[in-house]
Amino acid sequence: MTIDNAAAQETHAFEADVSKLLHMMVHSVYSDRDVFLRELISNAADACEKLRYEGIATPLLLGDDPQPRISLILDPDQGRLTIEDNGIGMTAADMGETLGTIARSGTKAFMDRLAADAGQEGSQLIGQFGVGFYSAFMVAREVEVFSRRAGTDVAACWSSDGLGTYRIAPVDLADAPARGTRVVLRLMDDAKSYAERFTVERIVKAQSGHVPVAITLFEKPDAEGAIVADGAALWLKPKSEISEEDYADFYRSVAGQYDKPARTIHYRAEGRYEYSVLTFIPETKPFDLFDPDRKGHIKLYVRRVFITGEAPILPRYLRFVRGLVDSADLPLNMSREMIQDSPVLAAIQKGVTGRLLTELQKLADSDAEAYLRIWENFGPVLKEGLYEDFERREALLGLARFRSTTSQGGWRSLKDYVADIKDNQTAIYYATGSDLDRLSTSPQLEGFRARGIEVLLLPDQVDNFWTTIGVDYEGKPFKSVTQGAADLGLIPLTADAEKPTPAENQAVDSFLAFARDALAGAVSDVRVSERLTTSAVCLVAPDSGMDRQLEKLLASAGQLPQAALPVLEINSGHALIQKLAGADDADALKADMAHMLLDQARIADGEQPIDARAFAERLDRLMRRAVG
User: Fold this and answer.
1) Helix, strand or coil for residue 623?
2) Which range marks the domain in which residue 537 is found?
3) Which portions of the chain are predicted below pLDDT 50?
4) What CATH number corresponds to the domain at position 285?
5) How far is 272 from 535, CA to CA, in rounded Å?
6) How far, in Å, CA of 78 to CA of 456, rounded?
7) Is-contact 453 491, C-beta < 8 A?
8) 447/494 Cα distance (integer angstroms)
9) What is the DSSP code (8-state) at residue 421?
10) Which terminus of the chain has fewer CB atoms gathered within 10 Å of its CB, N or C?
11) Could you give the CA distance from residue 144 to residue 353 in angstroms, rounded to a whole number?
12) Are residues 221 and 292 in the same domain?
């Protein structure tokens, strides 16, 4: 390397996250180091696609070399592997920004998982956080990157041994590609096989055979090249010519993941607008599934020209889908604003979204087991559409699956629920929470179980929102079991249900009045419950109030200045309530018991007593009285 100006060479320290990541890659043992080559080829292909796009507006950038290509140059004698492209290239500033930092969200989570899974699944995580370039340090003791950005007359070199610092320096144009980027890996002693034809050709065909740029392999720096991947666009080929392995390889390349697709959707739409679609539903959850920005990952091409990697093709609740759309009707020089406002793109969005939901429904009907694996991974995300997408809510309700009080650990559809609905049952009942086990043992469910009424158990945060916006299924509204009156009087108890033994009305009424006075300011009412059969008490939201779980969620996020007072419901047939109903109102312990009942109901709901010190003092008085 000839440095134009030695004084211009700059040494920088990697950001802390990068240093930690590099340490893990250099010092850990991975199950499959081959993944590094896929990542570097993917970067090279992206650079070629970016140039092809910019060349539409500025043809001079392509010069006399318009055909994109990737070259793999082997040097087994020197233990060196070079990956070169004639894409967009980088300036020195680009190198510092792109190769010295990790900007994508979720990096800490990636590294925590990488540290935990080193030697097991580490290689499967590469590529999911924009850290693919750094995978080179799994096999290289030193990496040099020579680059010249298209349209410029300067070149630079980035180099590092991965031990904490990197250097950027200007270089003679003769030492850099005429345009694009050259990545030189000086291989570790135990990685010299990556400079051998058999190894490299095997990896390319297995993992990068379908990138949209031709790949040429040179066995030695001055040898004749042989094409190992033709750069044909897989999505434009007939499905009959594509194997499952081809689809899986392409999925890994386009998605930046290392699992297999759980479902592949490949078709060509013809009619008013023509476009090709190749999308995949991942087998495992992407790490950025719940990133706050909820960005999609569908690539947009126009007549095979790459436009953007985050096209707004699918609604956000389908952000787990990976793949691409290639349009024949969109303008090649479309801007980001044109993407947002294009009627052609709006038609594509509607068509692709509808097709994906239809394919999911077909899978649910034909292979319930395969569909449930997808639902278990992405159900919470799909349910966001129940809240956001009114137009497709009916289709999403048909796709939804739920745990319930009668599902015995399995999944139930709303079609199943409605088929088993009880006579005189006017609603689809549900309970929301954060823990499925706690939900299934909630006292509010007792009266429903006693009547054989199925209750959906909804443990995901999004369930607190979509259930409150007036959703119904086949004319049956959704109703929370912890909100308002239960309205169970018209549905008889099952034959084997324990029959409650009500207390005398006058005595119960007296206790209710006493408890209302004692708990004034803590509850909005105290009333007899239709929900309870074995527990003494439970808390519910007022008839016109917000569901209690949603109220808790908003309060914890600081979005609810003042919560509504709950209703305390009592089981008039419970032995404790009967005993209290007959107690003397003058007894001071009766007031203690009223407060203890409220705290008992709060604890059953997973909450703390209102006043922990007062709770302990009351409990002490009651225990002392119990032991005489």
Assistant:
1) helix
2) 505-626
3) 1-2, 29-30, 103-107, 110, 118-130
4) 3.30.230.80
5) 63
6) 65
7) yes
8) 11
9) P
10) C
11) 43
12) no
Give yes or no: residues 302 and 336 share one domain.
yes
Tokens linked to 330: 């969109």
In this structure, the strands spanning 567-570 and 525-528 are parallel
Q: 617: which 2 tokens?
A: 């003092």
Secondary structure class of 41 (helix, strand, coil): helix
Q: Which helix (H) or strand (E) holds 308?
A: strand 305-311
Where would I find the H helices in 168-268?
197-207, 244-255
DSSP 235: G
- pLDDT (tens digit, 9 = 90+) per residue, 15-45? 666 666 666 665 553 456 887 898 899 889 8
Q: Which residues contact 31 (CB under 8 A, 6 or more apart)?
A: 119, 120, 121, 122, 123
Contacts of 120 (CB under 8 A, 6+ apart): 31
488: its two tokens: 């169970």
- Which pair of structure tokens corresponds to residue 259? 């699992």
Q: Domain of 20: which CATH number?
A: 3.30.565.10
Q: What is the pTM of this model?
A: 0.73
Question: Which single residue is written with the structure tokens 């297999």?
Answer: 260
Task: Report DSSP letters for 551-568, one per residue.
Answer: HHHHHHTT--SSPPPPEE
Q: What is the pLDDT of residue 25?
A: 61
- Decide if 101 contacts 15 (C-beta within 8 A): yes
Side chain identity at 344, as an amino acid letter? V
Q: 320, 346, 371: which is the final residue of a domain?
A: 371
Residue pair 577/503 in contact by the 8 Å Cβ criterion: yes
> Looking at residue 342, what DSSP letter applies?
-
Helix (H, G, I), strand (E, B) or coil at 471: coil
- CA pair distance 108, 405, nearest whole angstrom: 38
The answer to whether 167 and 112 have CB atoms below 8 angstroms apart is no
